[in-house]
User: Fold these one by one.
Assistant:
Number 1:
Amino acid sequence: MIIHPGKTIGVLGGGQLGRMFAHAAERLGFRVHIYEPEANGPAGEVSAMEVNRPYTDLVSLKAFAHTVDVLTYEFENIPTEPLGEIGHHAQLRPHWSVLETCQNRMREKNWLRKNAFPHVPFAEVEAGDDLAAAIRRMGLPCVVKTADFGYDGKGQIKVADEASLAKALEAFSKQRCVIEKFIDFKCELSVIVARSSIGEVKAFPVAENIHTRHILDFSIVPARVNAAVLADAEKLALAIVEKLDVVGLLAIELFLTDRGELLVNELAPRPHNSGHWTLDACVTSQFEQHVRAVCGLPLGDVSVVSPVVMVNILGDAWKWDNGYLAGDANWEAILADPRAKLHLYGKKEPRLGRKMGHFTVTAATADAALDAARALKAKL
Ligand code: AMP
């Protein structure tokens, strides 16, 4: 079914991804309704309607589905059981089974293994199993991660010695988790692919990502890797999106090893932080592409307009005094630079480690954009 402008798109989740999705949808003449448990979020503020009810409230979810022509999600930690129930009220794109696979590290990794996609070597540990023995079998260094609901490095500990082993045992002994080999990667890459409800597929150019304390810090486009790696990353992403049968966007995070091998780290069936650069330096943004894909409209051009670097702005950028908020960040520094674009998500309360916004810097080359981005970040 093709959904034309003028119709209403429902979004489950009301964070910054929903906000930027709503901007793109509204520009194409759609109405956007947001379903989000917490009031006053970034997306509800810019949408035609917002419902604040829990994701487990089936009656409210069904009523919400009746108000829209198609449904999508911008948040991964939504229980999938109720979503299976609302399918005949409004079509959910991507399907809830895609979310079910991607929201749990164990299921995601088993799916990659079963379908023979290259992934980080891992072992599964059930609650109550001998975690210490499993860690020793994997060998150090390794990374222990909770199976459910982990993101931005939350719920993971690198184990490299006896002290970190003790920390991991204390944190994870009573829950299901995944132990991964620690990959001493050359760099991290990501590819965002759109697949529309009528089967059209397009991959955005590969981004090179630098994480700091497990949170994305910089995305660099074009990625500074050779053409063969770019082609392999795109080929892998296209194969995964087809196999997973995604309608919408799928972000694929990859590690590039010293041997030139690509390993899938994570899959996210939604717009992705590493695609925010597309708002300012690509013919079509990832948010507009998501709208087009879930509505069955022709996908947009994914050509890069300029080399670009995206920098995340965390609550840390505000002025702090002994843990108390003491003042705004230096927005003028970014706004005064003609190469930079500032995006803030309208979150009411800055907190350390919380994603509050981002900025992009365009320049003649990726290296020049990265230098300028680092200089501007230092002034924030
Ligand atoms: P995740 O939440 O699993 O995507 O992890 C966040 C970040 O932690 C990744 O983007 C990497 O920078 C780092 N990381 C996670 N798993 C590993 C691993 N197995 N080896 C090396 N670094 C990792």
Number 2:
Amino acid sequence: MIIMLYYEKRKEDLFSSHGHHMIRKPRGTADILPEEAATWQYIEAKAREVACRYGFGEIRVPTFEVTELFSRGVGDTTDVVQKEMYTFTDREGRSLTLRPEGTASVARALIENGRCSDPMPLKLFYIINCFRYEKPQAGRSREFYQFGCEMYGASSPAADANIIAMASAFIRELGIENVTLHINSIGCPECRPAYREALKNYFKEHEAELCDTCRQRLESNPLRILDCKSPVCSEIAKDAPKSIDHLCPDCDAHMKSLTAQLDAMGIDYVIDTNIVRGLDYYTRTVFEFICPVIGAQSTICGGGRYDGLMKELGGPELPGIGFAMGLSRLILAMNECSKTITANNSPELYIAPMGDAAVTKASAICEGLRREGIKAESDLVGRSLKAQMKYADKIGAHYTLILGDSELESGVAQLKDMTNSTQREVRIDEIAAELTK
Ligand code: HAM
């Protein structure tokens, strides 16, 4: 124990050896270093490829928006808006918020850019960072990344089935197994009032036990109590009336058609009446892909239909459906399935120069090779020849080439293949051709 404390102290001393204390990243954020970035790049490339195959185009929206976009879009009785937003006032006194999600921004962007009269459906995807002030734990952070897709202008159950099929394909193609698709219907403005009343009556009986926020929600939005993270409220919510028992005939038919289409597509699902989603804009279909092996934060993908969102944000009446996935949760799930992506940044050639003239020549050769698309490195830190060879081995160079005065003079050098320790004589000017043959 004492030794450990001593070690920790030593570490701090080392870090603060310049007289400044070390600055740490804010709680709930992460640094992604090159080895790990390889997995992120893989997922992002896959997301772009799958989205493109399913006919979605990329949209990039601002990192911050006026706060009202989220209070109106996501809903001001949601946990996200009430407790989790990073809201600040800018120098002109405007209230701005770091986006907690992407759906509201995409809706705003489509309205603002006059895209709502384009041929339907509109299909957009995004890969963005989002910010929520939540308690950090495995799979939950304050800055996180989402791959999301949104489709506008199609109210058919076929649209729901297409969106769900795409999410499912993406997860499958990442090699993630042990995932279950949970679907539910939370109704529409037609059937919502009766359901709301039923919920209100149920929660009224437990009013004294509810948390302060939920007691207020009892009047303003009892549906939100179903999504409260407090242990007591979620326990009470377990026996609450189910939305699926209060659907109007249209919502009921929509759900039946969707499940029939999923069946036809060979996509497995369970109907889970506990899926309510934490955002206000949802209507009818809601769904989550759940991967229990990654822990408590096991929802790797959440989505649903939001037929009233556009109108709510001042746009035309345009139905929508979409989903978003947390990239860090996808990585946890991939790890659980032993699906690992390794970074490979090993150079094709490492040039070991000896002497000033050779250093200059090595840099010039390197630059020439790089311009031709060949990965090459040479010494930049003045290592001894022995240390250079060790370094070349460490970074996994395929070939090495030692350049000294005699090589510069003769124009020929020994190209060593590190994989089998054989070497051959090459003309220095023809090195690119030698490496590609
Ligand atoms: P959401 O359920 O709030 O939905 O988030 C979607 C996904 O983002 C979650 O399932 C989870 O994988 C990931 N996620 C959420 N919060 C965190 C966090 N604090 N740390 C790590 N990952 C997190 C939405 O955001 C909707 N906009 C989805 C949508 C798009 N619905 C329709 N279109």
